[in-house]
Amino acid sequence: MNTTLDPTRHAAPQVVEALRAAIISLELEPGSALDRGELAQRFGVSQTPVRDALMRLSEEGLVIVRAQSTTQVSRIDVPAAREAHFLRRSIEIEIARLLALSHDPAVIAALRSQLARQVDLAVSKDYPAFIAADKEFHRLMYVAAGLPRLWAVVTRMSGHVDRLRLLHVPAEGKAESIMTGHQTILEAIESGDAEAAQHAVRDHLTGTLASVDEIQQRYPEYLIL
């Protein structure tokens, strides 16, 4: 976990970012205890920004803060993941339609470049970086549609989905399936076929949650069903 803070920025948002990244990457595993004093020491700050960061992550469902008890990284809440996934899929189906209709060569080029990066990361089996590139592909779609603030909303809600995805990506054929989905979305946008683009997004955003049972069998201590 990166505990080096930028002195020109407020501490609390940086602690939030660092802790969220460690939770999403599973560096801090579901169920892990979080000691406020220890974290303050590691970040070199008082306990106040750490407390504020933990409360913020609690609002996102990534941390459980109990009075008079241990603060913990939350287990992966599958019902919450399904809600976040439903929202994201609904938004991105419409975004895909908009991008197919606008057929912007610059957007298509940016998406193609990001897909090429994913191919390289899949070959090297750098799964955390692969997932970051996966998210960047989708973020570019939101930005291209003029909806960057919706991406921020989706990101805040997607902590449980993101952790499920990290557990699922190493499975045989999953990375290839993600790249195939992106390629299909890109081809539909490039061809200006709005209906095909929507269908491609709908198909693409089903894999991880469709595999919850498989993930639960491998990591039963991580999930809340």
UniProtKB/TrEMBL annotation:
Q: Select a single GO molecular function from the record's annotations and give it.
A: DNA binding
Domain of life according to the entry: Bacteria
Q: Which residues form the HTH gntR-type domain?
A: 9-76
Q: Does the keyword Transcription regulation apply?
A: yes
Decide whether keyword DNA-binding is in the record: yes
User: Sorted alphabetically, which Pfam families does this protein's record hold?
Assistant: FCD, GntR
Q: Which keywords belong to this entry?
A: DNA-binding, Transcription, Transcription regulation
Q: What is this protein called?
A: DNA-binding GntR family transcriptional regulator
